[in-house]
Design brief:
single chain, 555 residues, Na+/H+ antiporter like fold, 3 domains, 79% helix
Length: 555
């Protein structure tokens, strides 16, 4: 037993080391880290002494998937998600169905020993796209936020629809019967309804608990526990654990501004950002390391034949998504305009082509393929399982690497890079409103001070110290008002607010950051001189970091 624990610990540390190294390399190469980590894992799998690590489907579905879904849902804007819901559903459910049907039709012609039932299984395996790969690349190249919102929403829901399709495919193979339409509809309603109810119920319980706690470590631990509770509860009731986690994350994200204190919020963001990076890194490195396992299962095929199968199948998946994107977007836009009365123009062909080109597959496809049974319920061996695993692995590599590397130049060539102007306008208006509200509050405070002037005039004449205090209070208000007007000037289109130029605030930010640097260096020097403790140094650094974070974006 100790030796197994030691071996597992060693493997985990090696994987974590690979994640760190490939993460640094991705930053140096200015390439999205999912691509670098998959290629890095692929190269590692070719080294003889590197441990052979087989991907455990339970590890993916029960350990890695819940927190990643929860984190993605937490960062999703409910306003954009609900507004684009029709377009998202056409991709998350419509495209998944179209992919399953397309692969089913291709399978018998492409692989004669595949019947239509196996085609359904293979189509369900490769239907879901990977959220992290597509959105990380899209955000890096400055893709319009409207497209990013739709891609994020699709990735939150298409896992559930693809796993439902896989469930139908396995019923076809194991029982040899075709589920009726009524059975499928009822199963879909049960999966979604119960998943939604569980997600909202867990979210409401956590919300009530959070209101009674104000302790960073405890609240962060609770936030890590939450997605597992939602997923496992729904899974125990044979509902959609994916939907339960997504709904729970969306709900708590909306409520977090009420129960998270500023300090806890900063801590939680830091912890979750590191956690999601590590989990995603482990996933992508593990995908690359599966090369040995995948090739070992299909030794009876020639390498040239396998390469041909991989190329044709991956190209077919890319074409399927592109074919669906244009009519699917038109139908979604028609519903949004005619039924929902949304004044939403139809996206141009360039934007639709980019949406079609972001169909990158990820770990869900590989885990679903590996999770397929080796034998059916009647004891018959599942001989096509190894080919399904190989094709899923090939689709992940081709779509992730090919589409991932070509997406940035494609976006730039189509003139879509950095085209998101409405979001910056919205942010500027929000900041202007916040600063104006602060200035109004200062004016109200000053008026309250001067409003009591007559009533207290005689008393203040008798106490010169009180007159000085009142004068100093006015100076505080004037200083704060000057600061807020300077910040407001930096947001105005004409570059002026009450006579202040944006250059004033720019210089203010520059000098303030230099002063913060001096303060930090002084604090470290005091620690080095043993005049303060390390604990006090960490407290001082945190205060300085919070102050500097206000100026990071403006600089």
């Amino acid at each position: 037993m100790p030796s197994n624990v030691h071996a597992t610990e060693l493997v985990f540390l090696l994987l974590l080391l690979f994640v760190v190294v490939f993460g640094v390399l991705a930053k140096k190469l200015k390439t999205p880290y999912p691509i670098v980590m998959v290629l890095g894992g692929l190269l590692l799998s070719l080294i003889p002494r590197v441990p052979r690590i087989e991907l455990n489907p339970d590890l993916v579905f029960l350990v890695i998937l819940p927190p990643l879904l929860y984190s993605a849902a937490w960062q999703t804007s409910w306003r954009e998600f609900s507004y684009n819901l029709v377009s998202i559903l056409f991709l998350a459910f419509g495209l998944v169905t179209f992919t399953v049907l397309g692969v089913t039709g291709l399978s018998h012609w492409f692989l004669p020993w595949f019947d239509w039932r196996i085609g359904v299984v293979m189509g369900a395996v490769v239907a879901p796209t990977d959220a992290i790969a597509a959105t990380s690349i899209a955000k890096r190249v400055g893709l319009p936020k409207h497209i990013v919102d739709i891609l994020e929403g699709e990735s939150l829901l298409n896992d559930a629809s693809a796993l439902l399709a896989l469930e139908f495919g396995l019923v076809l193979l194991n029982r040899g019967v075709t589920p009726t339409f009524a059975f499928g509809l009822l199963r879909l309603i049960y999966l979604t309804t119960v998943g939604l109810v569980i997600g909202l119920a867990i979210g409401a319980i956590i919300h009530a608990i959070e209101h009674r706690i104000d302790d960073g470590p405890i609240e962060i631990a609770l936030s890590i526990l939450t997605p597992y509770v939602a997923y496992l509860t729904a899974d125990a009731l044979h509902a959609s654990g994916v939907l339960a986690v997504v709904v729970c994350g969306l709900y708590l994200s909306r409520q977090s501004s009420h129960f998270f204190s500023p300090a806890v919020r900063l801590q939680a963001w830091a912890v979750w950002e590191s956690l999601t990076f590590v989990l995603n890194g482990l996933v992508f490195v593990l995908i690359g390391l599966q090369l040995h396992y995948v090739l070992a299962s299909i030794r009876e095929y020639r390498l040239q034949t396998l390469i041909g199968y991989a190329a044709v199948f991956s190209a077919f998946l890319i074409v399927l998504r592109l074919i669906w994107t244009f009519p699917g977007a038109y139908a979604a836009n028609l519903i949004r305009r005619r039924i929902l009365r949304q004044n939403e123009p139809l996206a141009g062909p360039r934007r639709l082509f980019v949406i079609g080109w972001t169909g990158m597959r990820g770990v869900i496809s590989l885990a679903a393929a590996i999770a397929l049974p080796q034998t059916f319920e009647n004891g018959t061996p599942f001989t096509q399982r190894s080919m399904i695993i190989f094709l899923a692995f090939s689709a992940i590599l081709v779509t992730l690497v090919l589409q991932g590397l070509t997406l940035p130049p494609l976006v730039r060539a189509l003139g879509l890079a950095g085209a998101s102007g409405s979001h910056s306008d919205e942010e500027r208006e929000a900041r202007r409103a916040i600063l104006n509200a602060a200035l109004q509050y200062l004016d109200d405070l000053r008026q309250d001070e001067s409003g009591d002037k007559d009533a207290r005039e005689s008393a203040r004449r008798e106490a010169s110290s009180e007159r000085i205090a009142r004068s100093e209070t006015v100076e505080v208000y004037d200083d704060l008002a000057q600061h807020y007007r300077a910040r407001l000037a930096s947001l105005n289109e004409d570059g002026d607010a009450d006579g202040l130029a944006p250059m004033f605030y720019k210089q203010y930010v520059e000098v303030s950051r230099k002063l913060l640097k001096v303060e930090r260096q002084t604090a470290v020097q005091l620690r080095n001189q043993r005049r303060i403790s390390d604990e006090l140094l960490r407290e001082l650094e945190r205060e300085l970091d919070l102050s500097e974070s206000k100026f990071a974006k403006r600089s």
